[in-house]
Amino acid sequence: MKSLIPSARTAVGIVGAGPAGLLLSRLLRQSGVDCVVLEARDRAYVEQRQRAGVLEQSTVDVLRACGAGERLDREGLAHDGVELSWNRHRHRIDFPGLTGGKRVWVYAQTEVVKDLIELQLADAAPLLFEAPVGAVTGADTERPTIHYTYAGEQRELECDYVVGCDGYHGVTRQAIPDSELHTSERVYPYSWFGILADVAPSNDELVYAHSPRGFALLSMRSHTVSRLYLQVPNGTDPEAWSDERIWDELDARFAVDGAWKLARGPITQRAVLPLRSSVTEPMRWGRAFLAGDAAHIVPPTGAKGLNLAVADVTVLARAFAKLYADGDASGLDGYSDACLRRVWRAEQFSYFMTTTLHVDPAQSGFDTRLQLSQLDRIAASGHAAAELAENYVGDAL
Length: 397
Ligand code: FAD
Ligand code: DHB
Fold this sequence. Notes:
The chain has eleven helices and 19 strands. By secondary structure, the chain is of the alpha+beta class.
C-alpha cells in the first residue's frame, strides 16, 4: 500500500476533517492546489458523529459541482417547507412560494462526510486520521508550520497557508495572538436533547414546535428513521430519561387539535447538546485562516452550522485558486469580510429562531405573549413568512 504519510511540505495545510476541512480539500484539489488534511479522530468516529441534517440549496449546488452529489441526489429528501407549531395548531412555511422557487434538502452531515471521505480516498488525496495537531506556529511568517503526531511520532508539516477547520475546540485559533481576535458570544440557558429513532417520520416536513413545556423539533434522516429534539435544562443527563418519558414529552409538546399522532419506535441514539452563539473575528491573521465552527457557532434552531461551514470553505477555495493560478491575493484579503456578512446574518436568524421558539426559564408571561404574537404575525403576513423563509433557505454563494 502507498505510504499515507504526506511529504513534509504542502501549499495549504488543513486542520480537521469535518465537513469544512474535507470539502476545502476536495475543492482545492479540483483547482490543482496541493493540500493535506490532518484529523485527530479515527475515520469511523468522524463518519458517525450525529449532527446537522438540513442542507441549503447553495450547499447542495457546491456538493454536486465537486462530484459529491450522487448519493445526495439519490437518497436526500427535498423539502419545500417546514411547519411551525404553537397554541395547538400548525402553520406551514412554503419555501418555493415565498422565495422564488428555493427549497432545502434533508441529508445528514454523517452522509456528507462519508461521501467526501470516499472521494478523497479514491483520489489518493492526503488525508490522515488519528493525526492530532498539537500546535500551529509561524502564522505571521512565510512558512507557517503544523505540528502533529502520527503513529506515535511527532511530525511537522510546513505550509504556505494553514486553515483551521478544527471546530470550536480546535488549536489553530491559538496560533493567532488573543490581542488580534475578538470573540462575541452568547450562551443559552437550555440545551437540546436529540434522539434517533427507528420509526417513520410522523410528518412529511420538519415541525418546529413552541409549547409552554419548551421547544421540540421533529426531523428525519430517511423514510424510516426519525430525528427528534427536545429543549431541556442545561446539565441534563440523557441516560436519566426513560424512552417512555422522552416520547411522552415529545407528545405533549407537539400536541395539536385534531387526529395527528406522533409515532413511537426504538430509540437508537441519544445526546444532549448545549446551545451557543459565538463569532471570532477576523477569520484570518497572517497566513492562518479559520473556517466553519473554528470561527463561529450558531444554536442549531436555524439549521445553519453546516451550511456556514460549506460557505466559508467555498469562498476560501475560490480565493486560493485565484492566488495559485494568477498570483491574485485579493480573494484571500477579502475572505474574512465576505464570510462575516453571511455569518452575522445566520447568527441573527439562529438567535431569532431560538429565542422565539424556546422557553427561557426566566421568561415572564409578557415574554411568552411576545413570542406568540411573533408566531401569529408569521402566520398572518406574507412578508413576515417570507423573511423567515428567505433566511432558512439561505443566499446563493
Ligand atoms: P466539525 O464538524 O466540528 O469538524 C472539526 C474537525 O476537526 C473534527 O473532525 C475534529 O475531530 C477535528 N479536530 C479538532 N481539533 C483537532 C486537532 N487538534 N487536530 C486535528 N483535528 C482536530 N448544526 C445543525 O445545523 N443542526 C444540528 O443538529 C447540529 N447538531 C450539532 C451537534 C453537535 C454536538 C455539534 C458540536 C454541532 C452540531 N451542529 C448542528 C453544528 C454543525 O454540525 C457544525 O456547524 C459543523 O459540524 C461544522 O463543521 P466543521 O467542519 O466546521 O467542524
Ligand atoms: C436538524 C437539526 C436542526 O438544527 C434543524 O434546525 C433542523 C433539522 C436535524 O438534525 O435534522
